[in-house]
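W.,

You were right to be curious about this one. When I first looked at the sequence I had no strong expectations either way, so I just let the prediction run and decided to look at it fresh. Below is the sequence, 352 residues in total, followed by the output.
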Amino acid sequence: MTATPAVSAVVVSHRSASEAAGCVRSLREAFERERVPGEIVLVDCGSGPDEVRALEALPADTRVLLAENRGYSGGVNAGLARARGAWLVLANADVVFLPGALTALLEAIRPHSVGAAAPLCLWDAGGRLRLPPENPTGFWNALAERHVGRWPALDGRRFAAFARRTLALWERGGDARQLVGAVLVTRRDVLDRVGAFDQRFPFEYEETEWEDRVRAAGYSLRFVAEARVRHLFARSAARNPDAESRRAVSRRRYRELRYGRLGRAILERPRPASASPDPNVDAAAEPVLPARPGAWAAISTNPSVIPFAGCELSEGFRLPEDVLGSLRPGPIYLRAFRRDGATLETRVWVKR
């Protein structure tokens, strides 16, 4: 039997064999380049024989081929049952690890006060567009999102506060209220204490609920700005027709667990009519923003522009084609803002 690895990377795939190939290769290269004694546990969630054949060709150490789609939570748990390392990397299949990311993440969870760590995710092939480091949390943020447009001044203050925090995490890293779950690095002792993922969440919210337990146990969550990965965000979900219905089940379950039946009922009431359209939002013929040295761009499908992907506006910005291809038809909001979070300009472009 081979020596027990220090690190186990659990990669979960559902109809994502092509993306999983890039993920597994990047992890294998990271283990070798960064001298990390690690193993790769590759899990497939009921994707069918063609996907399984493609996954069998990848250089994973262990394969867990599930007959049904247990969701990301079930896939992670099935992989953890076969993982041997004391340090654990939990990853979506649509992630590519860039040089140094693995080492930085492992170093971040070395202190026993840290329960989990996550990297900065880059969205586009050019590496310019950064994905959100965390999502807004809590009942009041969820309620405010339902009322966007009714009180523009409140919307502006909320965006400014979120933007300042996002820039601080992108640039310096640090403790976060919640980590986005594309990649999470943790330790076996943390899982032994707080438990594994809750498989009642079929799509999304599983990492949020798990992180709630991690924080409740007294651990911190660490966003590691110097650790970079590329996340091919929304590509695999776009090819799964049941993704939205599964997301709705998870959202409902999380709201009731966190806010109770009354809180969930309040958040699920019909969305109130918004105020008249903001006159400061311009219709755009193309998804572009002009250069504004010192300012930043925020890109979101939400009218609140929270959360957002973003980049510096030292030069003009056009939404990259590889990103556009992963977005569903509908409005896309592009906002230029100052470092203090103040909005300079907002445009809305509709993808047909």
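Here's what jumped out at me. Residues 27 and 160 are 37 Å apart (CA to CA). And, maybe more interesting for your project: The mean pLDDT is 94.

Coffee later to discuss?

I.
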